Amino acid sequence: QVQLVEAGGGLVQAGGSLRLSCAASGRAFRRNVMGWFRQAPGKERDFVGLITWSGGITTYAESVKGRFAISVDNAKNTVYLQMNNLKLEDTAVYYCAAGAFGGTFSRDYDYWGQGTQVTVSS
To answer: Tens digits of per-residue pLDDT, 56-65?
Structure first.
């Protein structure tokens, strides 16, 4: 059974920080890449960033580069998304996903978490 469970969403003021976590179990471990995506109301699901389980490779969307950071804790089988200097436009449901090769498209990932809401207020 594959499980990806996100946590850490919530309400934060603009300029603030949040850290999301994604705990992985089951076949997700056999997927080499973990990605983060987000979906705002009425919009497509957008790529945020990705990381390999080895932690050696990270990639970020231009819109979050320099503000967001992804890390892994292999001992806990958990991936984190640290979000700093949050902006109103970062408001969305955030999803983690697992894929064999990764990429910047949703179709590159096989397994998805349930999502966690992040709301940034002014």
So the answer is: 789 999 999 9
